[in-house]
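Researcher: Before we compare anything, I want clean individual predictions. No alignment, no superposition, just each chain on its own. First chain goes here; please echo the sequence and then give the structure tokens.
Model: Echoing the first chain and its structure:
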Amino acid sequence: MIGKAVDIPTADGTMDGYAAYPAGDGPFPLVVMFMDIWGLRDELFALARQVASHGYYCVVPNLFYRKGKITFVRRNAAGKMVSFDTLPKDLQAEMQKLGRGIDRAMVRTDVAAILDFCRDEPVDPGPAGAIGFCLGGRIAFLATQEFPDRFRATASLHGVFLVTDAPDSPHRLIGRMRGEVYCGHAEHDKFSAPELLAALAQSFHGRDDLTYRHNLHIGADHGYSLPDRDVHDAAATAADWHEIVAMFERMLKPSAKP
């Protein structure tokens, strides 16, 4: 396994990140992993290596690079990262401002830069996957909608603001997406309220060229899928990864199909 820091030139500066891929001969299908609001850290790099172990080139970009190399890590006495709601209000506001500052145009710029960067990496130019957590779950939808000819497998785990009143809300532009989409939701999560999940599901209704699967994990909290978190739910996370690995295998490795 190869893991390395990367610097990706963009129209707005240099986006730092991390990439992991098998040590054997490539090229490998691309999977872009979009970080949560907490920023880049070793926890995400380990997840990238987990994805790469299945035969993919997985890159994790720093979505906050326009503001710098920013990471929010706060731990409890047990050494686990604490939940957002336990943070001081001023820190919550700072994190929310950064997250909400990433708009669709920025995502389009950044993903275009990632795809361009990957031309010189051991990356197959065929179908790509996207996976995101929290903030990154929304970004994964945007990336797929902005580059539907490339992204054909999208996973969002406890994604935020997938359904809003904005004209470019992710759920309003489902028509741009192709392939398969999987969403993992937590029961105890304001972003997974029943009316929001119903609106999201309705957006996928009637599509012959797009498959939507989802799980609502009973008892789980927002952030459940991240192994270093105080709310990590191992069973829910295992169920998600079972779906995601199978989806990537189907959609990104067509040669593996019988």
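Researcher: Okay. Second chain, same rules.
Model: Second chain and its structure:
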Amino acid sequence: MHKLACLLLFASIGSSLSVIAQTQPPELSAKDDPASQAVLSLERWRESRVSTYMSDFGELDRYREANAELKSSGPSENRVVFYGDSITDGWMLDTYFPGKGYINRGISGQTTPQMLVRFRQDVIDLTPKVVVILAGTNDIAGNTGPMTVEQTEANYASLAELARDHSIRVVFSSVTPIHDYIKQRQAFFLQRSPEEILQLNQWLRHYCEQNNLVYLDYYGAMVDDRGMMKENLANDGLHPNDAGYRIMAPLAEAAIEKALSQ
């Protein structure tokens, strides 16, 4: 009887659980839930980068040959390096700064830990007078893993200290705003907290003031009254289009001139 009672009890519990399971709302699929879609998008992107991260975390191979050619041509009097992630990588500097000869050392998708790894090769060894650094948005997204704002700030400070030790003047650019006005491209927005962007920008401004660096405020010129990137400045909500770069270019030029005059 005891054994039979146990079997009846288990059967009753199983029946109850079955009823409960049937009454629970089904989980939203990634197709229906933008937040889940953003998480899956980031996971797939990370998976696609595993071989790169394991063999060349800083992606030093990207500019190795170009750097060798630059060094063999001798130092430039007022060489400027633009250093960053995809926003820099996609910036056609010769188009927006004609005749300046500015050097682009952006790599799409990179975070500040990666940029720190390649800073000697891609900046210090090129002996520029000024480096314009634009980073942080991929740290917030977690491209190379979860990061706190404080960890990003520490990497920025290390970049500045390395540059200072080699007489390179530093321009720290604000993290650019983002928008979700294009519903098909919400993943970029959902991966990047607007609050963390503001927090990081406040720290960057303060650090520049305290350490006599130049703060380049793209954010203030590109943000709308809702705290997002102006819709016409980025087709995907993150990467500036031509209109975006045309706002950024004169701001960068002014920051470079300020750095050179210090």
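Researcher: What stands out in the second chain?
Model: The chain has one domain: 34-261. Additionally, Strands lie at 80-84, 103-106, 130-134, 169-173, 214-216.
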